Fold this protein.
Amino acid sequence: MTNSANKDNQSNEIKNGDLIFQTSLSGQSKAIQLTTNSKYSHCGIIFSDEGHFYVFEAVQPIKSTALEEWIALGENGKYVIKRLKTLTKY
């Protein structure tokens, strides 16, 4: 899933627990990318509450942000959503 999906399709495709990634516009973004060898520098976990999607993110302090607002904070509004196929029990 990427930002090419329209808003109506997004709500049908996005599920609680999906992971969302973006390149942040923050000052430390480049350092995170270099350290992690990733094109992304920020991520969060998507959840829904009363029909609206939010991103639970680790910023100071840890908080939830409306999905649309979270997307707007990234570089050029680009993002990618991933979903784990299964979880392994240990």
